[in-house]
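Trying the structure run again after the queue cleared.
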Amino acid sequence: MPGLAAIFSPDPGCASLRRVRAMAEVMRHEPFHKVGSLQARQDGLAAGWALDADPACTANPVWNPAHDICLVRTGEIHADGDEADVERCGSLDGPALLRRYEALGSGFVDALDGCFAALVIDLRHHRVLLVNDRHGLCRIYLHVERGAWHLASEAKALLRLLPSTRQLDDTGLAEHLSCGCALGGRTLFRNVSLLPPASRWIFSSGRLIRRERYVDPRAVEALPILSEGDYLARLTELFPRLLRRQLGGQRHIGVSLTGGLDGRMIMACCAEVPTELSCYTFGGPLRDCHDVQLARRVAQACGRKHQVIRVGEDFLDHFLDLATQAVYLSDGALDVSGAVELHVNRLARQIAPVRLTGNYGSEVLRRNIAFRPQPLPGGVFAAALEQASHLAAQTYAELTHMPRLAVVTRRQLAWHHPARLAVEQSQLTLRSPYLDQALVQLAWQAPATLRTSPRAALHVVAQLCPALAAIPTDRGLLHAPCNARQHGLLETLPTGATSDWRRPGIWKRGRTGVDHLLREASFRAEYAWDYGMPQWLLPLERACSRWHPERLFLGRHKFYHFRTWYRDRLSEPLRQVLLDPPALNRPHLAHPATLPRLLEEHLNGQRNHTSALHQLLSIELIHRQFIDTGWDDLPQSDPGPACTSVIEEVLP
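Done. Tokens:
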């Protein structure tokens, strides 16, 4: 799923095949990607796409039998009760979507789920429908210039075509540095914005004639609250049905497992599924972390094979290349830590082209908010940027003044998550059952006692696969009937077991409580020894450096450790990029001496600048790849062939 691109313009020369093909080529990132383009000159449209060349994946374009309606799409599209229309890749096939459009018109999108964007080109009525998914996870970047609408799944496709967009937006950059993402549909680039989630826009003759949202979040948020019993019963019935849809199609599927609850719920539903599944977990170089240990037990309990994808020497040797690619693939929205995501997902594709994941489970079922404003490190960034970051915190507070689940569904999914998803989707197809509209609606009906509690997830696991309920999570959570047992035993739960849970107490549960406390302590110690290393502890670390005390703490919960890597193995890539003369004089820096000072302090162990180094390295790679690049400018118009209403396809 790389993406699609389009130009809408009354000028047929502007909406030309050559120009849109150039945009599509920018989104071809791997040898297994292919590109194509088409043009409806009378309708003022040129469209292009890049997609996975796997024959089981989506094809573009798709025509109806009368050859007067065409569909171009990216991503996977699901709809409830349409197993008969599911194609080999597990989503609705193109003919099924066109049948829906012919029956329902633009309302066909109302019942669709998934992560997608699509164009429906209706030659009968001379209009083009642009739609995206209800959460805005499949991004569409927009720019309007001289009456022409340019849009693409990746900002770099616009930057390739339009030199005027190759500038950083000061407000977007400040929001990105403070909150981890630009806010309110803004992006890092000037005059480039995002298509809002659940958009249904209609163009005619190259002009936008109607824009609307096909989802009213207020209707979902006003659903009646259920009792605990009803909510748990509905969740236990609904989740397996949603997962069966995720397992649809004939493509080999890999399940990425951790030690947490959300992947555990998926495996509880997969225990009796005959579909071929490969289970794997991401691990680090020092030891098998808790995720690996617990995921291995979960896979074994479900009768599945399990593999470990390690981040080790090969990753460190190629870090700079991977970091550069991750920043590029995410259009700068993901910092250089995304190099890890690119590396492990590239290896995961070798196991299976589809990755089934528990991502978004804690956000939807337990209302976890994953992004919040943070102050910029003092003395690093220019005063104007620091001031803008304070305004970013105010903007965040204004835009997130709503219930926690609304923050997740209206804000976080569209602003924060797509960056990492873009890197993952560049390598494989990512699926998660937790964003299905039926599950989100049910989450809004959760009683107050279950809205942030793991009780519901523990209940589902215990009901669907009792053996998994006896395996603690990475934070030591167990279904209540299992708390009296020792962790190492896999026993079935007694009939009629309750859904109560608790964090075991050392005074009640003996070994169970000790294990839980040790895991909590090791979790906090690892954070303190990595990203969160306090400045006052650094002298002690330096005094003990000959004994490598970090080996006692790192690798038990996390599989990558940038603070120590930057100080040791990755020091040379840091110097290579950040001490380059152009990098020392960027306008976002407080002073040209900023970068040499930060590097010296971090590499000598005097200060912990991990987060700042992430940001500075990422911004420099953004400048190199998007702002200072030597892209050749394309002409603003291209005469092309004679004007016609027939769509002309350019094959790869």
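The radius of gyration is 25 Å. Worth checking whether this holds up in the mutant runs.
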